[in-house]
Amino acid sequence: MVSADVVAARVRDELAAAGLPLAPQFTTVDERFRTGVCVVVEDEGDGVERVFVSWRTHHTLVGASSRALLRGDAAHPAVMHHGRVCRAVRDAMSEILSSAGFVVEHADEYNEYRPLELRVSAGPEPYSPAWGDAGDGTGG
Fold first, then answer.
1. How confident is the model at residue 11 (pLDDT cuts 50, 70, 90)?
2. Angstrom distance (rounded) from CA 57 to CA 35
3. For residue 103, what are the contacts with CB-CB under 8 A and spacing of at least 6?
4. CB 83 within 8 A of CB 69
5. What long-range pairs does 26-33 form, CB within 8 A, spacing at least 24?
6. Of 29, 96, 123, 139, whose CB has the highest number of CB atoms within 10 Å?
7. Sign of CA dihedral 128, 8, 82, 17
8. How confident is the model over 35-94, as pLDDT tens digits?
9. Where are the domains of the chain?
């Protein structure tokens, strides 16, 4: 069985190959510049590491949505737009990863604290990226 870290790296590669920007994973990067695909490996408390994928919008949309929520205005246009954007990109990422052979589910079906995220439980084995060129050793 392939480790969650290996699956996470393959997920990042597939989404980057599809043209989606990867958000910096380092905490030293200013929060405002962490936009794009976020891929993390975490244990949900049951001792099993899983891969989670989410979309991080630009800080202007995150900030407007957060401020409205802090005021208790869950129906504010920024909140609604932010949710729709994250759902649209989540669904697009799900299609991309499913097309590449990954087993993908909406994470909130298993954990209500992970709304708008994907949970990737497995990747194709043996792994050969669909975008790989058979002549360059990457598969395909």
1. very high
2. 5
3. 120, 121, 122, 123
4. no
5. 31/59, 32/59, 33/59
6. 123
7. negative
8. 899 999 998 778 889 999 999 999 999 999 999 999 999 999 999 999 999 999 999 999
9. 4-25+45-122
Quick one: three-class SS letters along the chain? CCCHHHHHHHHHHHHHHCCCCECCCCCCCCHHHCCEEEEEEEECCCCCEEEEEEEECCHHHHHHHHHHHHCCCCCCHHHHHHHHHHHHHHHHHHHHHHHCCCEEEEHHHCCCCCCCCEEEEECCCCCCCCCCCCCCCCCC
Residue with tokens 């919008």: 57
Do the beta carbons of residue 37 and residue 53 sit within 8 Å? yes
